[in-house]
Sequence to fold (319 residues):
Amino acid sequence: HPHGRGAADRMTGCLRLCSGVAVSLPPLLEWSIRQTDGDPCGSFSVCFAFEAAWLPVLKQAVGFTAEDDGRTVFTGLVDDFAVKLDRRGALAEVSGRSMAAALMDNQVRAAEFVSAQLADILRLYVKPYGITRIDAASMRQVANFAVETGYTCWQVLTGFCRHSADIFPRFAPDGTLVLRKNTNPRRVVIEPEQVRACSYVQNRYGAAARQVMVNTRTGQQQVAENAELRRLGIQCTHVSGMTGGGKLRATWRTAAQRLADSARELRQATVQLTGMADVSPGDAAELRLPGLGAAEELSVAAVVHCGGETGVFTTLELR
Fold:
């Protein structure tokens, strides 16, 4: 897409008030839409010219939707707003997070399931908080599933999905909760001529080459190793305790899952492209940057679309 105001004007915003009424925002002067693969959640920030009549509207705003040329690119909840004066005059800024915020902000009381089903989790910890659009794969039941007091709904949901099918929950741009693996990611190629700025990082800090889970009652151990890091001579070992009793707590992870989670950030790249790049979280990005010696495939963890006075840009966060 071209630089300049014409490209920026494609992005429009709409607020949902606590009464349910939808109100379209004035032309956006600046905007940032961050979509993620679910960890952490997406976010948004928009700025537009402010008039006093907008103050009562902003005070009642609870939801936000962004569209790019008529296509929904973000659905979320309003966290805050601010009004201010600068060289451009009176401005309003509204920001918030994806629909995952509704589950992250609500804590629950303890509960134990002899056999937890996905339907139970959705009925108790998802749908009551306004999440009704759900695209879920078939998942097996989880025996002796335990929820502790103070867990968030997001922790319960992610815990069940990891235990049942090793799935990471995520939200689609239209606000649909997606509970299925991306088994056939779309492949995109990033060539040097597309790149406005970039960085490539290998980060070993905090990455475990060996993960040990110890049953604090029986002393039994569960061990997993990262062969790649071991070959590099990295000896970092993480040891975590797990209580016995047969309960499977929502926040508990196997040794292999913990090891995989710590390895997700081993190789990272940030790439800024001009315009609204047609890339989505979960896509497989083939990075070809001879100048940095980088030529490998990474997963798109987040896509950030930004617009303003200097044009429209897309930043890809890869790992």
Summary: The first strand starts at residue 11 and ends at 17. The mean pLDDT is 91. The two ends are 26 Å apart (CA to CA).
